[in-house]
Amino acid sequence: MKRRLSIGLAVVLLAAVVAVVVWSPSDDAQGGAQGELTTVRGVTGSEKLAFFSDQRVVDAFARHGLKVEVDTAGSRQIATSLDLGKYEFAFPASSPAAQRIQRDRKTTAAYTPFQSPMAVATFEPIVQLLQAAGVVTKGAGDYQVLDVAKYLELTKAGTRWDQLPGNTAYPARKNVLITTTNPGESNSAAMYLSIVSFVANGNTVVGTPEQEATVLPDVARLFRDQGYTQNSTEGPFEDYLAAGMGKTPLALIYESQYLDRVLRADGSIRQDMRLLYLAPTVYSKHTLVPLSDKGDQVGRLLSTDPELAKLAATFGFRTSDPRVFAEVVGDKAPTDLVDAVEPPSFETLERLLDAVAK
Amino acid sequence: MRTALVGTGLVLAALLAGCTDDPYPDPAAPVGPAEPGVLRVLAGSELTDMQPVLDEAAKATGIEVKFTFTGTLEGAEALANGEVDGKYDAVWFSSNRYPAGIPDAAKRLGNQVKIMSSPVVLGLSGASAKRLGWADKRVGWGEIADQAGRKAFSYGMTDPSSSNSGFSALVGVASALAGAGNAVDAGQIAAVTPQLKSFFSAQALSAGSSGWLSEAYQRRASGQDPGAQVDGLINYESVLLSMNAAGNLPEPLTVVYPSDGVVTADYPLTLLTDAGNDARDAHQRLTDHLRTPDVQRKIMETTHRRPVVPGVELDSRFTVRDLVELPFPAARDSVDALLSAYFNEIRRPSRTLYVLDTSGSMAGDRIASLRSALAGLTGADGSLTGRFRQFRSREEVTMLPFNTTPGTPRTFTLPEGDPQAGLAEIKAYAEGLREGGGTAIYDSLSRAYEVMEPLVAADPDRFTSIVLMTDGENANGSGLEEFQASFGSVPASLRQIPVFTVLFGEGSSAELGQVATMTGGKVFDARNAQLGEVFQEIRGYQ
After folding, report:
1. B97 contact residues in A (CB cutoff 8 A)
2. CA B19 – CA B321 distance, rounded (Å)
3. Which of A24, A46, A89, B162 is the most exposed, fewest CB within 10 Å of its CB?
4. Which among B182, B308, B310 is the nearest to A175, CB-wise?
């Protein structure tokens, strides 16, 4: 059964998580402007690099005596193959990846300061084509959605763009496929797999080995047919922005990546560019796992510091307090997204990812 | 395990002897220990054109890039077997697609930051483009393959196992011709093999490097080389636009952007996962700088590659802006099946004649190197690169050993299908080579043309080349001048055969250079490198 998760409910859940962790470690936020900054090195999904590199964010951390340096890597790479020994925190883009790190590092601490639903960056001509094909519809909310069930029908038939009726806008001899990242390495691909496996499983979260086996052929195709995929979500989104429709007609991204560009108003979001929400979608819950006291301080600040929360919203992230996000984003994004589902359990998702990454 | 990487044909003493005061720095040798402010980068040789941009970047960021150049497959292999560990901080190839398919290589790829992009496309002389009707009309790979199959035009392309442009072109053409709209797999490759054969029947030039290919095209177009003119090139858009910008072509190339799609190089400057903190910081600062709009514009202007960040508009030289990207197979077995089919079934078969010095001075290590170098081409080298550089099915190989006089030539023809028995014969022949006597280089080279003549007459449609390897000065028979004087009377069909000369021991670099130049070949220096690696490198040109 499809669950409707409003932001309000999410906030209650998140607040609970935050409240548990905030008070546990000792408060060492001393330092300050006059003191030497303490360097904290972390690893994060590429989608948060711009946030950490922003001077205002750097300054906000500096006011707490911290200099945060981040490396970027695919979230699943962070969780599975990267040597975390040299980092003080790991900040993958999803809770399943964070759970894996927590299990491996034998820690229960985690912060989820912000989240972002999965969406598709595309172009107006593509929206019109997919509307005509019944794949893009007016959703349950007040915004257009890409109907994942209809999309799966198209992909199951191996439909190429040039086979869509009346297509003169984009007659590419290439399958209709959303460009994703590598499911073996990147969180956004894992989130996408959560969505498509839910739909392929008759709108139910995949929970048994039998269900995994049943959905696998239909979902594996979505990755296999793409061929080579990049290992980080910034890759396809940059291709979308710089190389355009020919290369990337449909890019799976975090909503935050698109909103960040819209809010920057730097001209990178051009007239014909569109953001489509997926129906259903999944929220990517950016979860920081502290690996040291200093890393813990970073997580705590991100969760509690009002200035950092506001800055996170300017980068398009949906903050724990939805009012912060709404204030910053205004009418550029719907406040509440309906039709959000939960990812499968960590173990199920891992098995599915391994199977489709083959 | 191979210890040296051959990308340019110049592997000098620094690598082998570990000395650092070599007056001729080796472009293929690692650049020493990690140091702050220096990024040690294993890279594709085409990135030499980034030097002006990197010099400015060094001023702006304090980060100096020290390059070591190698080929695409060699680079993937160096990643996979750990040769890069501790020696380099980053790799920078035209794409990470191939290493990403090899788990042991993929796990060493850290932070990947795309710097610029260039699609692999077809460049045709203006006249050829007009003749074919492609000057003002978009065409797909299918029509290009049809016309190629009718020999309506000829083209040059790099060897897909040595250079990324050839590799990308092969994948692009196969994906487009398969027409399924998804990434090609081994089954689709088999189905599309007849069309691919037709497409590659028009390939008139092969090369181990993109740079040599452009030069050969230009020298042939201007009549400097004896070889027949070629109508076009498959290469990066950036190479084609740079050739036009250099202004030494008789007529500029028309760039044909296939309407059904291209494969695009995106040049990710990729930190290795074991890089130290200084290198991480250097990588971050350098990539941030290279991706600023001003530097992106500068890259576009100086290298003719496309910007990868939004907000930098393409200038008017980029006539087609929005290009469909063809899916690139992710599975290594699909790529390997394609490479294997290309070498053993699809491409025009090769005819290769080796003129081999077996004079007395080859005694000891040298004759042993020669034997093992030839054996390495019969499958004895099981490495990633070795597999695609060995003698192939359908290939015709002639050995002509010489000392005081030319020896007895022996021709081996490898059958279509399994070449194992033929390879074993070549290996046994190589192991039987004995040294002794003098050095009659030019009598033997003249003899090579006589040996070639009936072979070429019987079967003219082969990629034909001569390799001339010698470890000394000419001591017997006719000299270079006499050879040069007689070259004019060599039949035209033979005169255009490139001679790839190999400097070994005390071989004369000036004379062998002249032979290479007059025949449209190239000199390879094996004086301080493994002869086997040089022989493998030459395979890219055969």
Report:
1. 228
2. 48
3. A24
4. B182
Contact between A267 and B311 using a beta-carbon 8 Å cutoff = yes
Cβ separation A228–B183 shorter than 8 A: yes
B509-B514-B519-B521 Cα dihedral, nearest 10 degrees: 30
A230 touches chain B (CB under 8 A): yes
Question: The whole model's pTM is what?
Answer: 0.85
Q: What distance in Å separates the CA atoms of residue B75 and residue B105, rounded to the nearest whole number?
A: 9
The answer to whether the CB atoms of B327 and A174 lie below 8 A apart is: yes
Q: Please report, in tens digits, the pLDDT of each residue of chain B (542 residues total).
A: 343 433 333 333 333 333 333 334 455 666 788 888 999 999 998 899 999 999 999 999 999 999 999 887 889 999 999 999 999 999 999 999 889 888 899 989 988 999 999 999 999 999 999 999 999 899 999 999 999 999 999 999 999 988 888 988 999 899 889 887 888 888 889 999 999 999 999 999 999 888 889 999 999 999 888 888 999 999 999 999 999 999 989 999 999 999 989 999 999 999 999 998 899 889 999 999 999 999 999 999 999 999 999 989 999 999 999 999 999 988 888 888 999 999 999 999 999 999 999 999 999 999 999 999 999 999 878 787 888 899 999 999 999 999 999 999 999 999 998 899 999 999 999 999 999 999 999 999 999 999 999 999 999 999 999 999 999 899 999 999 999 999 999 999 999 999 999 999 887 889 999 999 999 999 999 998 899 999 999 999 99
**Neighbour-count burial for B291-302, b at 16+ CB within 10 Å, e otherwise:** beeebbebbbeb
Q: Does B176 touch chain A (CB under 8 A)?
A: yes
**Cα–Cα–Cα angle for B165, B168, B174, nearest 5°?**
135
A271 vs B: CB within 8 A: no
Domains in chain B (CATH in brackets) are 13-116+266-307 (3.40.190.10), 118-264 (3.40.190.10), 349-539 (3.40.50.410)
Topology of domain A117-282+347-357, CATH: D-Maltodextrin-Binding Protein; domain 2 (3.40.190)
The domain made up of A7-115+285-333 is a member of CATH 3.30.420.40: no
Cβ pair B192, B178 in contact under 8 A: yes
CA–CA gap between residue B143 and residue B327 (Å, rounded): 20
Strands A111-123 and A136-138: unpaired
User: Would the CB atoms of A71 and B327 count as touching at under 8 Å?
Assistant: no
